[in-house]
Amino acid sequence: MTDIPHDADARRAVAPVICYPTDGLPVADMQFYAKVRETLTSVSRVTVPPRDAAAISVPAGQFLRIHSVEGSQVGDLNLFNANDLSERFYSGKTRALHGTHVTTGERLWSSFPSMRPMATITYDTLNWYGIDQYGGSVHDVIGTRCDPYTGRLLSGEDYHHCCHSNLTRALAAHSGLSLAEAEHHVHDVLNVFMCTGFTRDTGQYFMKASPVRPGDYIEIFAEIDLLAVLSACPGGDCSAEHSSDAAACYPLEMEVLRPADGTLDRWVPPTKNKYDLSHGA
Fold first, then answer.
1. In 158-224, which ranges are continuous DSSP H helix?
2. Would the CA dihedral through 199, 202, 205, 208 be positive or negative?
3. DSSP label at 70?
4. How far apart are CA 166 and CA 252, in angstroms?
5. Which of 23, 74, 79, 151 could make a disulfide contact with 193, Cβ separation 3.0–4.6 Å?
């Protein structure tokens, strides 16, 4: 069976089929969000130090902007239901529905069994980038997060300011959980501002210098009460390496904005997934 079949070329030429056609997804009303955005007022901000992380609460119906403020810097974002940490961002299903990278008009979905839109991307100053000649694009949901376990496996050394550890410390500090309890909740991320893709020859995950500039931001609308935890990656712009102190790193900023009273009167928060949980039993 390992021999090349006579019809190998024909088998390779079979057209692909989209796994999850999205025609049935609830449509994001971007005209509505655009109108609401005209009334925004900043209510809170937090600075995320280089090679560290911070957390901020975003009530349902408000907006979160992640800003580049000093230099080219990527961030690893975890999102939680602020009232139930077991409901958290599901990067794999978001990728299956929207593709390897996300931008304006697409949604960030939560984990089973709730599986609902946690947030809608309402503005992205980097949506001009598109897909480059290498297959790279920005804001990926394919990478996991740099972590001390893979670092130890590959280098034999311990590094404590990778994104996984940063997120763990920040979540523990915000929630009052122990480090061990907090780590259980840290999950695969939205790689904000990170430019990534897969190599055409070997299919390996690659990164390249982020195109982000000071003043760029990505903005999301909180469809439910959110807790956002963001790490300023030790890789800086991820042009060369991560999980080390070699790269130039810069702070990021998270800002929460509130729309004017009355502008959300026709908005309805998403309910939890309607699957009956019987699993055929």
1. 163-175, 179-185
2. negative
3. S
4. 14
5. 74
Query: Can you tell me the mean pLDDT for 94-123?
Result: 97
pTM of the model: 0.96
14 falls in which pLDDT band (50, 70, 90)? very high
Place of tokens 């609902």: 116
Alpha-carbon distance 115 to 237, whole Å?
32
The CA distance from 190 to 114, in Å, is 19
Handedness of CA 46, 49, 51, 52 (dihedral sign): negative
Token readout for 160 is: 């404590």
DSSP 3-state assignment of 104? coil
Q: What local confidence, expressed as pLDDT, does residue 244 receive?
A: 80
User: What is the Cα–Cα distance from 45 to 42, expressed in whole angstroms?
Assistant: 8
Share of the chain above pLDDT 70, in %: 100
CA–CA gap between residue 235 and residue 240 (Å, rounded): 8
Residue 47's beta-bridge partner residues? Answer: 253
Beta-strand pair 137-140/117-124:
unpaired
CA 184 centroid distance within chain:
18
- The predicted pLDDT at position 187 comes to 98
Residue 26: per-residue pLDDT: 84
